[in-house]
Amino acid sequence: MRTPTGTDRLTLRGPEDVLAKIPFLVGFHPEDSLVTLTFDEDRELTLTARADLPEPDLTPQELRAAGDRLACLVFGREVRYCLLVAYTASRARATPALRAAVAAFADVDVTVLDAIVADGTRWWSDVCADPVCCPPEGKPYDLASHPLTARSIYRGEVALAGQEEFRRTVAPPSGAARVAAEQALARVVSARAADLGGHDGAGLVARLFARAGGGERLTDEEMARIAVEVCDVAVRDEFWSQITRESADRHVEFWSEVVRRTVPPHDVAAAALLAFAAWLQGQGALARCALERVHACDPDYSMARLIEQVLRCGIPPEAWEPPPVGP
Question: Which domain of life is it from (predicted)?
Answer without folding.
Answer: Bacteria
